[in-house]
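Render this sequence as a predicted structure.
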Amino acid sequence: MLRWKGRALAASCRCCAEPPAAPGLTRRAFVAGAAAAATVAATAPKTLAQAKPHRIDVHHHVSPPAWNAALRRENAGQAASYNWSLQKSLDDMDKSGIATSIASITTPGISFLGKDEAIRIARDSNEYMAKLMTDHPGRFGLFATLPLPDIDATLKEIAYAFDTLKADGVCMMTSYDNKWLGHVHYAPVMEELNRRKAVVYTHPTSAACCTNLLPEFREPVVEYGTDTTRTIGSLVFSGASQKYRDVTFIFSHAGGTMPFLIERFTRLPRIDRRAAGFTPEMVMAEFQRFYYDTAQAAHRAALSALTTVIPVSQIVYGTDFPFRTNEDHVRGLSAFFNLMDMKAIDRDNALRFMPRLKAA
């Protein structure tokens, strides 16, 4: 457990603690108990998957037709996005006990398009995802696409998404044109989202500064986690996260590289005058009130880092479908967390900021 000046900063994973040995435990009893535990561990994911649908997936991508056509035309997408279908989403949800998936589009969003087309496709995509909500009651939610970096068009789309389409929140990329989400350029958008007490789900992208750096592999391998960390730091150290305290932020992929770099962030007030006015405790408090999803991070390395820094209360279930399956995530999370923590991550934590889904 990470501690700061002697006090615990986050709850660690309780399921990983070694239980004390029972007095007088015989070798035969120990072996029998270990075998029983192994059987439970082996069947837990299957049992969870067969339970009544209850999970809320906050990181579930769909491909609205107009957006998909633009991706194909510009060769800007990936096979998983091109080949998505509604039936594939529903089938994967049904296999692993997913009650509701909050639909969003993925990187590159719509910023690869010209201004007018981006505005049009944002609206078309949001209406398509809202129709999924109507046609499949309780199965889908909506994180609305915004035509950023255009501020005026984005404010209009926020009003339409919330007031007409009844969106659950908005989706913002971690950066646009080398401006991360704490940048003053976004102040009018953040002020409106704060007024509405909105949920902002963020998805990483490759920053304009850092594309095509390595020929050996594509940007998502390194840059996505890094850009998530950049935007978290931008929001905190610009003061934006404190100014817009009624915005609920969700960061993808277990916070990217932030958990590994946490000490660098908490030490900034001591070593960099640009962080004047902050204290290590203030920085940690900001990080610990954000939410973090489990997409592409349902494994011990990522979860150990995240739960050392962030309490389980701030972790929400996400999969990155269709790039990963729900089965992958149920298996990985169930092997790491105990049942009480799984209940919180699967559903209860998300209900705090999306209470309408209690009936789903």
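Summary. The chain has one domain: 54-359. Confidence is low (pLDDT under 50) at residues 1-49.
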